[in-house]
């Protein structure tokens, strides 16, 4: 049933209903407080249901942050540590293998691996993180390294990004997660993470990964010092890459958590409200017309907002998750892990049909002795 549109959204509603692409200015309208959120959400839901029907995707996954010691000092980061700090750690082979064994015992199909750039770690150590896990637990998909890490490996080895990615694929890398994107616009990026891989390098890494046949995710860190125009610029840059390669599979809007980090403390920033979170979800679904999936990462949003997000553009809530540090260090109060029964109940309560997928969006069917993978789930238009 078509509802009457508020005046400000009428032209955008027409475009969305006709399946037309939205412009930068349309994005700013969607961001404006005069655009009623329920209506923005309804439009996003239209696109979400066109692409993904009533599916509510999740996976069984775990995290590995093999070190938190980092040469960089991104002002939003509560996870990093210096070598001399008590919280600094660096995992060696046994601990990494133990994490793999635990993952497989828990039925995980994916391990999400990112971490600090330890000044004493050689490239071979980072490669070994991947090869150890892949050789010993070949059913585990390794979604690992952001462009910040790939760029660092390129500096360590003095080899191009393409060489690093090829070498990582040979070691067992399965795909790239979405991190390290933050805000692409230089006005903001230089204030929050001046030294690490810049926007050009982020795109070069993902573009090269896609050329090599890897899929990747993408993110945006919102709710700090950026403005609406920086967020829309960010989404349009991602949309342009996707037009070029088609390799992005999921976009995850990341709500800034202000605790225990310089950016939050110095600027007295409060965590984004649920209404801001829902608007970011919906705007992304509407602007990223060529990306199949939008993820409401429950660890970061909280379970209630993630459930609501399934009606505001999102079709995925990430996984059961285990060993998450980045958000919990920055003040997240969500549980550290959710059982399959609970995650399915959360999705069902939101009115969606829970579907277990693997990292590459193939349907997972559980069997008595493990799981089998179906065809890639194809999104609609
Ligand atoms: O790049 C760091 C963000 C990202 C904070 O690909 C923070 O499936 C909020 O990329 N407040 C890493 N955000 C996490 C990430 C991710 C998460 C879930 C799923 C996937 C995926 C990727 O976390 C970093 C940065 O943007 N981050 N500190 C903070 N204080
Ligand atoms: Fe280091 Fe990553 Fe934290 Fe930046 S976000 S300080 S690169 S661990």
Task: Please render the helix and strand layout as text.
Elements: H1 10-17, H2 24-31, H3 37-52, E1 55-59, E2 61-64, H4 93-105, E3 110-113, H5 123-136, E4 141-144, H6 147-157, H7 161-171, H8 186-192, H9 199-211, E5 216-222, H10 228-245, E6 248-255, H11 262-266, H12 274-287, E7 293-294, H13 298-301, H14 303-309, E8 316-319, H15 326-329, H16 340-349, E9 353-356, E10 362-367, E11 370-376
Helix pairs in contact: 2-10, 3-12, 4-5, 5-7, 6-7, 6-9
Largest sheet: 3 strands, parallel
Radius of gyration: 20 Å
Q: Strands across the major sheet, in which order?
A: 8-1-9
Order of helices and strands: HHHEEHEHEHHHHEHEHHEHHEHHEEE
* Approximate strand percentage: 5-15%
Just give the CATH class.
Answer: Alpha Beta
CATH topology: TIM Barrel
Give structural notes.
By secondary structure, this protein is α/β, with parallel strands linked by helices. Helix content is 43%, strand content 14%. It contains 16 helices and eleven strands. The strands form four sheets. A three-stranded parallel beta sheet has the order 8-1-9, with helices on one face. A three-stranded parallel beta sheet has the order 2-3-4, with helices on one face. Helix 6 (147-157) crosses helix 7. It starts with 9 loop residues before the first helix and ends in a 5-residue tail after the last strand. The model has no long low-confidence stretch (mean pLDDT 96). Ligand V47 binds next to strand 5 and strand 6.
Task: Give a summary of the structure in a few sentences.
With 381 residues, the chain is of the alpha/beta class. The protein has 16 helices and eleven strands.
């Amino acid at each position: 049933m078509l509802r009457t549109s508020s005046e400000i959204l009428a032209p955008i509603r027409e475009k969305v209903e006709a399946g037309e692409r939205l412009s930068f200015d349309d994005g700013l309208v969607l961001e404006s407080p005069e655009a009623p959120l329920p209506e923005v959400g309804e439009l996003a839901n239209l696109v979400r249901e066109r692409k993904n029907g009533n599916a509510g995707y999740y996976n069984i996954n775990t995290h590995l942050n093999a070190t938190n010691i980092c040469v960089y000092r991104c002002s939003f980061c509560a996870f990093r540590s210096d070598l001399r700090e008590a919280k600094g750690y660096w995992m060696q082979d046994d601990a990494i293998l133990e994490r793999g064994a635990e993952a497989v015992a828990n039925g995980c199909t994916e391990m999400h691996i990112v971490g600090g750039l330890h000044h004493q770690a050689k490239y071979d150590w980072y490669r070994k993180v991947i090869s150890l896990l892949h050789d010993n637990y070949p059913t585990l998909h390794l979604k690992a390294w952001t462009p910040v890490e790939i760029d660092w490996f390129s500096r360590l080895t003095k080899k191009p990004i393409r060489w690093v990615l090829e070498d990582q694929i040979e070691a067992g890398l399965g795909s790239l997660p979405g991190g390290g994107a933050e805000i692409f616009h230089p006005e903001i990026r230089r204030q929050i993470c001046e030294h690490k891989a810049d926007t050009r390098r982020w795109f070069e890494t993902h573009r090269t990964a896609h050329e090599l046949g890897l899929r990747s995710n993408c993110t945006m860190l919102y709710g700090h010092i950026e403005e609406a125009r920086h967020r829309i610029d960010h989404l349009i840059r991602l949309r342009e890459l996707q037009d070029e390669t088609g390799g992005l599979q999921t976009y995850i809007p990341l709500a800034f958590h202000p605790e225990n980090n310089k950016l939050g403390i110095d600027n007295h920033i409060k965590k984004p409200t649920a209404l801001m979170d829902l608007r970011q979800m919906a705007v992304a679904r509407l602007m990223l017309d060529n990306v199949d999936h939008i993820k409401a990462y429950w660890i970061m949003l909280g379970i209630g907002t993630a459930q609501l997000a399934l009606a505001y553009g999102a079709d995925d809530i990430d996984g059961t998750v285990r060993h998450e540090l980045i958000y919990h260090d920055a003040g997240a109060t969500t549980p550290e892990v959710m059982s399959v029964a609970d995650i399915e109940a959360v999705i069902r309560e939101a009115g969606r049909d829970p579907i277990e997928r693997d990292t590459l969006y193939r349907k997972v069917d559980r069997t008595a002795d493990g799981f089998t993978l179906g065809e890639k789930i194809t999104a609609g238009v």
